[in-house]
Amino acid sequence: MKPFTIAENIYDVGIIDWTTRDFHGYVTPRGVTYNSYLIVDEKNCLIDTVKKPFTEEFLRNISKVINLAELDYVVINHVEPDHSGAMPELAALAPNAVFVITQQGKNEAIQHYGDIFNFMVVKEGDTLTLGKNELYFQPLPMLHWPDSMATYLKNEQILFSNDAFGQHYCTSKRFDHDLDKDILFYEAQKYFANILWPYAKLVPRALSKLQALPLKMIAPAHGAIWSDYIEEILMKYSEWGQASKSETLLIAYETMWGGTEKLARSISHGAATAGVSVRLFRLNTADNSQIVAELLTAGGVLFGSSTLNSGMMPNMGSLLVYLKGLQPKGKLAAAFGTYGWNGGAQKGMEEYMHASGFDVQSGFNCKWTPTFELDAAEQFGYEFALKIKEQNR
Ligand code: FEO
């Protein structure tokens, strides 16, 4: 059976990787897709490839539509191996294929796979005629790597956006309107937070370029195709790119003997009394990627940890190392926790928070386990929540 078409003579030849749960540290409970599209025209053109272990299935998908020898162009929007892994085998089996790529992408591809490809380097505004169809190239550097590019199919008004607008969300349906909208937008937010947050300040400029194009579809390289909710996802990217802050407080904590948990619950109560929404996560029941997804739009965050051997609990270390890479600049934050004869967790957490660009506020520390300090913890939560409310005024 032939692959699905997303428009006339445009085939979905990508891969649904239902079982992957870890994408370089990003936890993916709904799996990952590596989308690739085949445009059949006077010149046949493939948009992106897939992760290397799926090469055989991928080549079979293409071969159901055309012979590999009939492939004229392969657009490589991004060289990260989830999209380029099948390039070497494709080059060997499709000897007539020219690989269309940015100069940066060419450099990266040669480093990854050797100088074995017939390249055509493109830059912003370049076009490529396939017959009835014409492609337009729009580099989007750092969304997600320096080489990243989007390719626009003029006649059908389809933007092949690669990582931008993606979601790690496996489904046998291809379009946004066939899916649970809440899950779709949650996964899009989670994707932005975990992949694109460090480059968020580049998003407004990218959006201004893309919004100049009439769009019937945005077909990313991960997850569902946007067709009915294009305006909404563009608006969300605009919000996320400008670090919008809701009146929500995130509390992420880990506890050794329950003292830090008592503090977390009292702080939570105090903050809720001030009128903010509170989301509370113990780190042994929530993964880093989930917390980061919620943090993207939260107004502030409190990190709590017991002191273990003069430092923070290991899973708090994991979260803060992950966040240091994402650089959530300007987000209100403070640390709290408990210690015995010697502190250390709070100092360690605050060092990471400063290094991550958080707007670090005074924290709350308690010796051994809290008893009469719980009222003060409630007050601490209340006052921190007022700061969250204040920043939106
Ligand atoms: Fe989906 Fe940056 O690769």
From the structure above, extract its key features.
12 helices, 34% helix, 23% strand, binds MU-OXO-diiron
In short, what is this structure?
With 393 residues, this protein is of the alpha/beta class. Helices cover 34% and strands 23% of the residues.
Would you kindly provide a written description of the structure presented here, covering whatever features stand out?
The protein has about 400 residues and is an alpha/beta fold. About 35% of the residues lie in helices and about 25% in strands. It has 12 helices and 22 strands. The protein has a 7-stranded mixed β-sheet. Strands 17, 18, 19, 20, 21 and 22 form a 6-stranded parallel β-sheet that branches. Helix 5 packs parallel to helix 7. The chain is elongated and about 80 Å long. The relative contact order is 0.10. It binds MU-OXO-diiron. The site of MU-OXO-diiron has 9 residues, from helix 2. This is FprA family A-type flavoprotein. GO terms for molecular function: electron transfer activity; FMN binding; metal ion binding; oxidoreductase activity, acting on NAD(P)H. In the N-terminal section; belongs to the zinc metallo-hydrolase group 3 family.
Q: Can you lay out the helices and strands and say which pair or pack?
A:
Blueprint: E1 5-7, E2 10-12, E3 15-17, E4 22-23, E5 26-27, E6 32-34, E7 37-39, E8 44-47, H1 55-63, E9 71-75, H2 81-84, H3 87-93, E10 98-101, H4 103-113, E11 119-121, E12 127-129, E13 134-139, E14 149-153, E15 158-162, H5 181-196, H6 203-210, E16 217-220, H7 230-241, E17 248-254, H8 259-273, E18 277-282, H9 288-295, E19 300-306, H10 314-326, E20 332-339, H11 345-355, E21 359-360, E22 364-367, H12 374-391
Parallel strand pairs: 8-9, 9-10, 10-11, 15-16, 17-18, 17-19, 19-20, 20-21, 20-22
Antiparallel strand pairs: 1-2, 2-7, 3-6, 4-5, 7-8, 12-13, 13-14, 14-15
Domain Flavodoxin-like: 249-393
Family: In the N-terminal section; belongs to the zinc metallo-hydrolase group 3 family.
Pfam family, one: Flavodoxin_1
